[in-house]
Structures are given as C-alpha cells and as structure tokens.
Amino acid sequence: MDGLGGAIAATAAGLLEAAARQDLRLAVAESLTGGQVAASLVAVPGASRVLMGGVVAYATRIKAEVLGVDAQRLERTGPVDAVVAIQMAEGAARIMGAEVGLATTGVAGPGPADGHEAGQVHIAVVAPGASAHRELRLAGDRDRVREGAVEAVLLLAREMLDTSAGADGSAPAGEP
C-alpha cells in the first residue's frame, strides 16, 4: 500500500509495537472516523496483543451514555470539542480496561454540521499520567478528512508513547 494508506499502516504498526514494548493496552472511541482507527490497528498482524477494542459513538447521545462524556458539555458545545474528545478517549480506556485511549470527533463533510465547517476535527489521546489534544482543519472530501483524522490520532498516540518511553524505547527513568 502506498500514499496515505501506507502511512496509516506504518503508523498503526509502529503504535502497536510501542504499546507492546511498554506493556500498554489500547482502546479507541470514534465518531467521524466510524471505526477506521480500530480497523487500521486490526489490519496489523498481532494487534490483539494490545488492542482491547473500540466504540463507534456516531450519535451524540452514545458519547454520553456509553463513553461517559459529560451530557451538559455536549448540550453546551456539541460533539466537536476538545474536552469531548478527551472525555471520549478517557471513556474508551475506562470501559475497556486499557491504559491508552484514542478518540476522534468532528465534521467529515461534505458540508458543515452543528455550526462547524467540514474538516474541523478534534483528536485526543490519554495515557498514564498524560493527555493530548489536537484541533485539526483538514482539507479535501469526506474520505480525505476521515483518513487525515485517522492518521493524525495514530501519530499523536505514537508520539505520546515514544515520549513516555524515551528515545531508545526503554521505560522512563524511575519506572520498571
């Protein structure tokens, strides 16, 4: 596979390797990506060593009822929000017993939704002692926005695990 698909596959494989080295389990919560993050991870042989599962929370009420996103926050901001993305990642990790949670939420298009332009995306990753969020403005059609969100959340998770492990892949100082 080449192009963006190849980059996603390579990033997914690297993330799974980093999680396995650190004995961490992954869980995914997805909205606009509709399962593509989990599918990208599952496509890598051996993913079951660290991937616990994923929740596609496409409907706003599922974000609250299943993932535990603050319902009042959802009413106030809607689902395209930094805090919502972080809470989705936390919820996925919690319900699946994983140390690392990844989340995507946003508008894939083709047009705007809930006052947000197509391509506005929030991704989040939570890990032991850390969380990270990025707001993205992705260009292109619906497929390109979704693929861009998948690539971005996998990269963010990989960066977080690489940072927590140190440049050589070993555990941080003071940890086994």
From TrEMBL:
Pfam family name, one: CinA
Domain CinA C-terminal: 13-160
Alphabetized InterPro entries for the sequence: CinA-like_C (IPR036653), CinA_C (IPR008136)
Domain of life according to the entry: Bacteria
Gene3D superfamilies, sorted: CinA-like
SUPFAM superfamilies: CinA-like
Protein name, UniProt field: Competence damage-inducible protein A
Source organism of the structure: Actinomyces slackii
